[in-house]
Amino acid sequence: MSKIVAMIPARMGSKRIPKKNIRLLNGRPLIQYAIDAVKEAGCFDEIWVNSEADVIEKIALENNVNFYRRPEYYASDVASNDEFTEDFFKNVDTDIVIQVLPTSPFISPEEIRDFVKTFVYNGLDTLISMIDVQIEAIYKNKPINFKQKKITPPSQTLEPIKAYGCSLMGWRRENYLKNIEKHGAAYHGGDGKIDFFTLKGYSTIDIDNEEEFQLAESVARSLSKNKTYVKRYYGDEHSEVDVPQILSKDGVSSSSYNLSNQKIVNFKEILKTNSSTESWCHRVVNSENNSATLIAQMPGEGNRRHYHPDWNEWWYIVQGQWEWEIAGETCIVKKDDFVFIPKGVVHKITATGEGQSIRLAVSRDDVIHTYPEGDYENK
User: What is the tens place of the pLDDT at every residue in 182-237?
Assistant: First the structure.
């Protein structure tokens, strides 16, 4: 009986989205979705994570799956998919490899099981995942699935165009290595029995750029139905989404979170119920897409240097004076100023001047706060 292993490739050198495979998607590292789906599928003799990085090894071992440390060359931009897969075949004992990409976080355990069954029951040498796209398509300025001189039919009647998915790939060891020896390539099949497996729905989402990551974030939040996860943090950065805990660690001594979304709220009345000599926060609005929180701090108090990987943030200065460090540059903002920080920009806020300063922070309740190395513990 053939030995079947799952391989989850996860290098750290992504250029379009730095450290993509460990970036949090709805509170979990991206690679965690693939690991969970593969484990739940329950159809593999072994599960392997394939990477060059220590941080990925830590995730693999904490999930009780195997880790293969690929040589640095096979994690570089110059190494081909054919090469790093060949390297895996030559160093891990297996007859069949099923690749599950972490960049397709919504591949389901059921689809993985169906993919493996299709491969095994049909005696395939290569199985490639595809996406059916029913849309008018042109190749080299010529229509593929429609006639330019005829009435355009409804899109649902068009012959689907099959787009490469690669989210799931399967190869038989013996055939793969023969193709490498004969053609110098095997990732896309070469000789042997080849077939295609159609992905559907959210499984077709593959994250290659920031826009696709944002789309995946929206889908993940919708599918989780506001379920929250215990946050795990890896590498030289630390991330959190629990705003009350974040503000507490920033030194905010008292907080009011259960008085938000009142039909009318008066700022002066809020001031009367809070101290003028201590830090505090009062959440005014908390909805699905945004939140607004009044934050009061005394001179010298503030927050820790951080950025938000997936959300813009802005503030209105209600009272006092603040020092704002933005991407390494410092500026002073005062009452009635607005401040806008795009996602991904590192910033730090400190109250200055005399007496209490108050800012209205407008963002989202569960926005991710990511702290560069050394800044999580240090103010």
Answer: 999 999 999 999 999 999 999 999 999 989 998 998 899 888 764 544 444 445 67
Q: Domain coordinates of the chain in residue numbers?
A: 4-224, 238-371
For residues 377, 238, 231 and 314, what is the CA-based torsion angle, rounded to 10 degrees? Answer: 90
Cβ pair 244, 220 in contact under 8 A: no
Give tens-digit pLDDT for 41-58: 999 999 999 999 999 999
CA angle 351, 352, 354 (to 5 degrees): 115
Distance (Å, whole) CA 313 – CA 366: 12
Angle at alpha carbon of residue 125, lines to 176 and 32, rounded to 5°: 80
Fold of 4-224: Spore Coat Polysaccharide Biosynthesis Protein SpsA; Chain A (3.90.550)
Helix axes 54-62, 30-41, angle to 10 degrees: 40
Distance CA 127, CA 129 (A): 7
Per-residue pLDDT at 378: 62
Q: If you average pLDDT over each of 146-155, 158-167, 226-235, 352-361, which comes out highest?
A: 352-361
Overall average pLDDT of the 323-348 stretch: 93
What integer pLDDT is reported at residue 81 of this predicted model? 95
Query: 98 forms bridges with which residues in the sheet?
Result: 6, 170
The DSSP code sequence of 193-226 is -EEEEEE-GGGG----SHHHHHHHHHHHHHHHTT
Q: How far is CA 184 from CA 75, 191, 231, 348, in A?
A: 19, 12, 43, 52
Report yes or no: 63 and 39 within 8 Å, Cβ to Cβ. Answer: yes
